């Protein structure tokens, strides 16, 4: 009998401990993850009818709470919705929240620790809680320009940042959508709109997966910036090195070969300087460097620029992680060194890589939030510029800047040239199988001697001519718009 009682008692204690542990996990350890889950509607429902804080760009709300219907005191409204949808996301009773509406949800709802005294004050006054407003670093004019430069029906992304501070001036991508269609209080309408929006090719309604401009894409020749940094860092190469430049490089262990870019002047020289190889975007010199240094050296340099890493906590939007693959054979390494095969990057990653070169080798944390203001408008948080990692040395960054400037002055990136301003840039063309289409890239910064702005553009699934028209010349327009402010 005593043994039976003892066993029952032990079972009861074990069950109590299990229940206590589960409650502790839900309330303490796992609370943030559970609240952040876009499918968790409990947090949305708890504050759905409250006056949520605004998301502000250039002093004007792009997301705000306005008087609602009889069933709910407030309705979420998005202004210029297609322009900012990839950043604001949506706040929906039926589909949860995404984008900044999700990542800044506690702040916008007034539930963050910083607003504890405000909540207490409102409670004692018998008022409904109000959320804090989030002011963004985005420049509305540059954001609009970036969106306008992506043609309707074209899948593409543009990222514009300040390389010295990490402030994001524009993040635009198409296709886009109207979050108001999902934020409606009518379930039938919201569900029908959601289903219809999901039929748009390339649409991403769940920005928590990869964020705006967060698609993982083959970077093509913009990856050669990483090859160059790895080469100079190794000590085996310097600014005067002559690189092998055959018109085609046989891939080890394979019957295939890696050709040079046919549209440039690569094949006029059997050897090439770094300047010439970057100006003309020659493939074989950089493949040769990778085969010489080995995959670990290239991968480690890629990681120093952010591949396989996160972007820190200031971005406030989740992004897909850029990839340089493991366990490559020699043929795969040669192809990967020119940004093909399984190398994948987000436009933001390529922008941060470029900004690190512009900033003397130091990569800043990307920052989308300028300030957070309490309901009484006082500033309760104002993120400061913060270094994220050192990607390369200042001398190497300066040397790569010189060669990127030459690529704009004398090479195939000349479409980005701005009269009276030194521009540093690099183009990229990532082939999409045998389709004849490519992902076309430009990434660069200006002025080269005192960088104020870094621009990255990618247009997906375009032919070479269309890609050339939509990348470097559009970068020129953005450089001019930012520098003329």
UniProtKB/TrEMBL annotation:
Name of one Pfam family that matches: Transpeptidase
Source organism per UniProt: Paenarthrobacter aurescens (strain TC1)
TM stretches of this protein: none
Penicillin-binding protein transpeptidase domain sequence ranges: 156-480
UniProt GO molecular function: penicillin binding; peptidoglycan L,D-transpeptidase activity
Signal peptide: none
Alphabetized InterPro entries for the sequence: Beta-lactam/transpept (IPR050515), Beta-lactam/transpept-like (IPR012338), PBPA_dimer (IPR054120), PCN-bd_Tpept (IPR001460)
Organism taxonomic ancestry: Bacteria, Bacillati, Actinomycetota, Actinomycetes, Micrococcales
Designated name of the protein: Penicillin binding protein transpeptidase domain
Example of a GO cellular component annotation carried by this entry: plasma membrane
Biological process terms in GO annotation: cell wall organization
Chain ranges of the Penicillin binding protein A dimerisation domain: 52-134
